[in-house]
Design a protein that fits this description.
This protein has 7 helices and no strands. The protein is mainly alpha-helical and about 150 residues long.
């Protein structure tokens, strides 16, 4: 390829600036491939709904609510049932789970944090971790040395 410019020569280039409107009209800002926007399908939360119908527990209900909120299926009957379940079992649900249930049901007044799980602190955790009550039943059982 020929070298049209000498290294010691000063190049004077005038940029071809266009307005944003013209650039957009020329299509230079368009995506490379035009795909239709993805629609959310109820099948996105089908597995969560199936899990909920087989196992009515707070963690499964919270998973269903999370998937439903992200997929915009807050009005589904199973989702509403799961949200009500979390609210009725509020002493065993975390504050985040209750907050999510209130959001799904569009309830305004959020209750104060009354979950037993959220209220456990270092002092409340220590008795739960005490191994001494477990030692007695273990020492009664004979040990096999095979």
């Amino acid at each position: 390829m020929a070298n049209f410019f000498q290294d010691d020569q000063e190049r004077r280039v005038v940029p071809n600036w266009r307005t944003f409107k013209k650039t957009a009209l020329f299509g230079e800002l368009d995506p490379l491939n035009k795909r239709p926007a993805r629609r959310f399908d109820i099948n996105l939360i089908a597995k969560n709904k199936e899990d909920w119908n087989q196992n009515h527990t707070i963690p499964v209900a919270a998973d269903l609510l999370s998937a439903a909120v992200v997929s915009n299926f807050r009005t589904d009957a199973d989702v509403i049932e799961a949200a009500n379940f979390i609210i009725t079992q509020s002493t065993d649900a975390t504050y985040s789970q209750k907050s999510l249930a209130y959001y799904v049901l569009r309830l305004r007044a959020m209750p104060r944090n009354s979950s037993r799980i959220d209220l456990i602190n270092a002092e409340g955790l220590e008795p739960l971790l005490d191994p001494k009550p477990l030692w007695k039943p273990i020492s009664i059982e004979p040990h096999s040395v095979c």
